[in-house]
Design brief:
The chain is of the alpha/beta class. It is built from eleven helices and 15 strands. Helix 5 links the parallel strand 9 and strand 10. The structure holds zinc ion (2 copies).
């Protein structure tokens, strides 16, 4: 079967690989469409410390069950795949939070992913949905933002702020809106803010033109927002989250900071904050995203920049690397 293989950083090609049959208790899937995200771009650039080479990328998956289905997951059904693994023995797994498993291996990162014609997966990692293939590919990336909103315990009527409206941040915006919060999207890019509005943001702040503190004070009538979700990873936005959030508010970090961040830690104490990290997603986050997409409440079309055959993968990744602003979401048709 054909596969897209990242031999080493910046060396990527479509070539034939040996097909392996499914292990006992696994379902065989024909891969249809795979989305690429920043993780894949970083693997291509050699800047993802978790990836080893050679590697077949692909963890945002739409596939059709070929064999090994069941009554609830019949052969022929379209599904998306939960791409994380769990060791079952670490502290996170024992606490029922396998998304943060210490020994997690994500498809396409620590083990080969879905950019090949067939993969085999345990049935408990398959999620069926009445969705188009393109929407099925959006479930995993959106679920990461949904998990952040769950970590922030965002409730109806609360004011939730999402700083950064890239792929992950946009999922968090959609999640906060889906949970009934008054949702504030913050970015420096008007186009991203427009899409955030379509995803349910009630207020948009472009910090190139508007002052973040004054705008949030006005929206939250001087109290500050109940929840702030940081989805960029810069020192100044990490700090802004604790500075802007209300007294006794919640702060959730999903952005990965690339350098140490210095804090006015008295704010943690003085405001008695709940500060939480958020990583990957849980199966219930997948189910919540599917519910939202099935209700047609997400601007799927507007977020996808390019859909192209697998053979275009090497060219598209090189072009994305050279001109990152040109693309938001690339999807590759595998079969
Ligand atoms: Zn991804
Ligand atoms: Zn574990």
């Amino acid at each position: 079967m054909k596969a897209l293989i990242l031999e080493r950083p910046r060396d990527i090609a479509v070539r034939e690989v040996q097909a392996t049959g499914p292990a006992a208790c696994e379902a065989l899937l024909q891969v249809r469409l795979v989305g690429l995200c920043g993780t894949d771009l970083n693997s291509f650039r050699g800047r993802n410390p978790l990836v080893s080479y050679p590697r077949i990328p692909g963890h945002e998956i739409a596939a059709t069950i070929v064999s090994g289905g069941s009554a609830t997951l019949p052969d022929g059904a379209n599904v998306t795949v939960y791409p994380y693994s769990q060791c079952g023995a670490c502290a996170a797994c024992l606490r029922g939070r396998p998304n943060a498993c210490q020994h997690n291996q994500t498809l396409g990162v620590q083990r080969d992913g879905a950019l090949r014609e067939f993969i085999s997966v345990a049935p408990n990692k398959l999620f069926p949905a009445r969705l188009e293939l393109q929407e099925l590919c959006l479930v995993e990336p959106l679920s990461v933002g949904f998990h952040a909103a769950a970590r922030g315990e965002v409730r109806p009527g609360e004011i939730a702020v999402v700083i950064g409206c890239g792929g992950v941040g946009l999922g968090a915006v959609a999640a906060c809106a889906f949970r009934g919060a008054e949702t504030v999207a913050v970015d420096v890019d008007d186009h991203k803010l427009e899409i955030a509005k379509l995803a349910g943001a009630t207020h948009c702040i472009n910090t190139e033109r508007q002052e973040l503190h004054a705008s949030l004070q006005e929206i939250a009538q001087g109290r500050g927002p109940d929840v702030v979700i940081e989805a960029i990873g810069l020192p100044q936005t990490f700090r802004a989250a604790v500075e802007e959030v209300a007294f006794t508010g919640r702060v959730v970090y999903i952005g990965y900071a690339k350098e140490p961040v210095s804090y006015e830690t008295r704010l943690f104490v003085q405001k008695e904050l709940d500060i939480r990290g958020s990583r990957n997603a849980l199966p219930e986050d997948f189910r919540e995203v599917i519910r939202m997409l099935e209700q047609g409440r997400f601007p799927a079309r507007e977020t996808i920049t390019t859909v192209a055959p697998l053979e275009k993968g090497p060219e598209l990744l090189s072009d994305w690397d050279a001109t990152p602003a040109r693309y938001s979401k690339i999807m590759l048709q595998v079969s």
